[in-house]
Structure formats: C-alpha cells, structure tokens
Amino acid sequence: MDEHTGDAWRGLRVMVSAGASGIGLAIAQAFARAGARVHISDIAAGPLAVALETLPGGGACVADASDAAAVDSWFRTALADLGGLDVLVNNAGIAGPTAGIENIEPEQWDQVMAVNLRSQFLCTRLAVPALRQSGRGVIINLSSVAGRLGYPLRTPYAASKWAVVGLTQSLALELGGDDITVNAILPGIVDSERSRTVTETKARARGVSVAEQEALILGNVALHRKVPLQDVAATALFLASPAGRSFTGQNFNVCAGIQTLI
Predict the structure, then answer these.
(1) How much is the average pLDDT of 222-245?
(2) Please, what sign has the CA dihedral across residues 166, 168, 169, 174?
(3) Is the per-residue pLDDT at 4 higher than 80?
(4) 95 DSSP 8-state letter
(5) Residues with catalytic annotation?
(6) What is the pTM of this model?
(7) How far apart, in whole angstroms, are the C-alpha atoms of residue 142 and residue 146?
(8) Would you state the pLDDT for residue 6?
(9) Of 1, 83, 240, 247, which is the most exposed, with the fewest CB atoms less than 10 Å away?
(10) What pLDDT, on the 0 to 100 scale, is given for residue 166?
C-alpha cells in the first residue's frame, strides 16, 4: 500500500512514545507524510526539537514513558492538542545489558521492564477511553523478534519483549468489543544506530570483531540484510488503515526472515 495515495490516514490523531529517533521517528514521519496529526514524546528535549522540525503540524512533550506522572502530563497535553485519539504507538524501549544472567544487576532488570513493558501499560490505560470514542481505535505495540526467539546474553530485553506479545494478545481480546485493534510489530535487525550499538556490545561480550558479529547475525537472516526503518513504519501505516481493520492480536514479524538471534 502506498502511504502517499488516498486519504486512509488523513486527519488521524496519532501518539507515538519515544518518537524522536529510530523506529519511533520513522513511524511518526510516515504518519505525518500521510496526512495524520502526530504528537510524540521522548525523554530529552533536544532530540524532540530536532524531530519536530520533520513533523509539520506535530506536537511533542518531554516525558519518560516509564514514569506515571510524566505519561499523565503527556496525555493531557496531547489529547488537548489533538482533540482525541485514533492511534497509539507504544514504541518506548531500551536495549538493556548485554551479559550473562549472573552478571546482571536487579536494577538493570527492573529498568528494562519499566521502559519496555510498564510504559506500554501506562500509555494504554490512558489511551483506551479516547480510543473508544474514536470509532476506529488502533494500538500498535513494538515488540521484537526477541519476543519470539531466545536471545542469549540479552535476557531482560527478551523477557520484556515476550511480555509485550502477551500484553498485546490479551488487550486484543479485552478491547475487541470496542472495535479497537491491538497488534504487535516484531522488528528484526533494524538498520539503525541503536542496532549498530547492540552489535558492537555483543561483539565485545563474545570477544569477536564487529564485522564477525554482524556476519554471524545476518547469516541467520533469510534475506541476508537488515530491515530498513521505513519497512517497520509501513507496517504501522497498514495496521492503521482500513485494510488493517480485521487484524488484531497478531504479531507482525518485520524481520527479513531471521531464524536465530546470536
């Protein structure tokens, strides 16, 4: 589906957490280009200001998506600016530690769960009343292929992303009677700065070069390449379009055919 044709997304009111960079920004920009009204949050003001320059008519708030008071403040501002809500994209997430389980501190585990999972709970609980009023409510939760595959040395991250899948499928059943669709996108190895940092960290942990680590990773990908950010954004657009209205409780693996995480 071409995001630049038709009026499928024109006028949609969209909120994207952690929307100042990476996947979140790509999704926000895709919706904005398609005619939606977009409001993003992120943890730092500087990246938000830069991102907002690429979102004509968009809005932004500094907010830690794992902090209840900050999320409450973002929703008050965004819902007032947008006049309602049609699409919530729960994108906030961190990579967490790369280490064996015996070398991970409880505080590190808790932080990953707070940002990757608690944030989705905090945002969704506030979004649902507005989405019920929408008549075409959409929730898109960002999980990961680490939400369906084991991921050695990345247990907090994988556990949080498996939990996002469970949250998604449960909410799909809970909110289906309100005609609110709830789906998860599970990106694979995305071509982004964060992905490159993760590869570098994993290479150090394994005692191999970055090139060797990347070759190992892509050797387990059917298409032998990374996933462009635009492909993840296009999936989000589809799920918020009329063509996506009958999909709910589903996991969309935008992963280039990855079979194993190393």
Answers:
(1) 97
(2) positive
(3) no
(4) -
(5) 157
(6) 0.94
(7) 11
(8) 60
(9) 83
(10) 98
Are 58 and 52 in contact by the 8 Å Cβ rule? The answer is yes
Number of separate domains in the chain: 1
Picking from 244, 214, 205, the residue whose alpha carbon sits closest to that of residue 104 is: 205
Mean pLDDT, the chain, integer? 95
E-state strands within 129-220: 138-142, 181-187
232 within 8 A of 254, measured Cβ to Cβ: yes
Query: What does the block give as tokens for 30?
Result: 């895709």
Give every strand in the sheet of 251-254, ordered side by side: 59-62, 37-42, 13-16, 87-90, 138-142, 181-187, 251-254
Q: What is the pLDDT of residue 206?
A: 82
pLDDT beyond 50 at 47? yes
Residue given tokens 């309100």 in the structure block: 178
Which residues, in sequence order, are bridge partners of residue 1? none
We report the CATH number of the domain holding residue 137 as 3.40.50.720
Q: Let me know if residue 168 belongs to a domain.
A: yes
Structure tokens at 221: 């990908």
Asked whether residue 217 is assigned to any structural domain, the reply reads no
Which of 57-87 are b and which e, b meaning 16 or more Cβ less than 10 Å from the residue's Cβ? ebbbbbbbbbbeebbeebbebbbeebeebbb
